[in-house]
Specification:
There is one protein chain. Helices cover 31% and strands 17% of the residues. The chain is built from eight helices and six strands. 25% of the residues are buried. It has a domain of 152 residues: Rossmann fold (3-Layer(aba) Sandwich). By secondary structure, it is of the alpha/beta class. The N and C termini lie far apart (60 Å). It is globular, with a radius of gyration of 19 Å.
Length: 223
């Protein structure tokens, strides 16, 4: 494996103002897809997109993607995006599938839409009230790229070949691994990157210690 060159930055909040048109476009896309975005995610996404540069025709992993925005934005710009998360997205809602070309890397990664289109607890009348999601299937898709759903732990990307990706992007995701497992995750992400590929990650940080991995605490106040 070639020697990696690393760069660490503290993301300045001023990026939000510096890239105001991009931030506003991200807000609009998030609203249209019904995705909630906190300001810190806008900061992360802005930094990520400006550092990725042109993505048209590139093969990119959205690592720890969850139900986030990044993969859809990259697909709109022409990338083929492998969306990886240990949380299953097999029942991906129709409003995503109608706008973007989406498939599962494996059969179990994306269920056929008819399996959950009308669950027993939901009437056809309720579905008709959300008919806009289904009508979009009749319209041309907006994205020129596509999204490939892969429900898997980042430590074991067994279905992704060595040196097959141009870039890996992880938005506030890698810190959700244990300190012991994080090294294995990084090694696996480097395995699937092409020589000269780039791994971009935003993470929580602290000056003196790794506070993110401290045990969670709770408080109950009776008054």
């Amino acid at each position: 494996m070639t020697m990696a060159v690393a760069r660490i930055e503290i993301l300045p909040v001023s990026l939000i103002d510096e890239y105001h048109p991009l931030v506003e476009a991200l807000k609009r896309r998030a609203r249209s897809l019904r995705i909630e975005l906190g300001w810190h995610y806008l900061l992360d996404l802005t930094w990520m997109l400006t550092n990725l540069g042109p993505v048209d025709g590139r093969h990119i992993m959205d690592a720890g993607a969850g139900m986030g925005l990044l993969r859809w934005v990259l697909a709109e710009q022409g990338a083929e995006v492998v969306s990886v998360d240990r949380y299953s997205r097999a029942a991906l809602p129709p409003h995503f599938r109608a706008r973007y070309e989406v498939r599962g890397l494996r059969r179990e990664d994306l269920a056929p839409i008819w399996r959950f289109a009308c669950p027993p607890s939901r009437s056809w009348r309720a579905l008709l009230r959300r008919g806009g999601d289904w009508l979009r299937f009749l319209l041309p898709r907006q994205a020129i790229g596509r999204v490939i759903i892969y429900n898997q732990d980042l430590k074991s990307l067994t279905d992704i070949p060595d040196h097959s990706l141009d870039a890996v992007a992880a938005v506030s995701a890698l810190e959700h691994n244990s300190p012991e497992g994080l090294g294995q995750v990084v090694m696996e992400l480097r395995r699937v990157l092409k020589p000269g590929g780039v791994l971009l990650a935003t993470l929580g940080a602290a000056r003196d210690k790794d506070w993110f991995h401290a045990p969670s605490k709770g408080m109950v106040l009776h008054q």
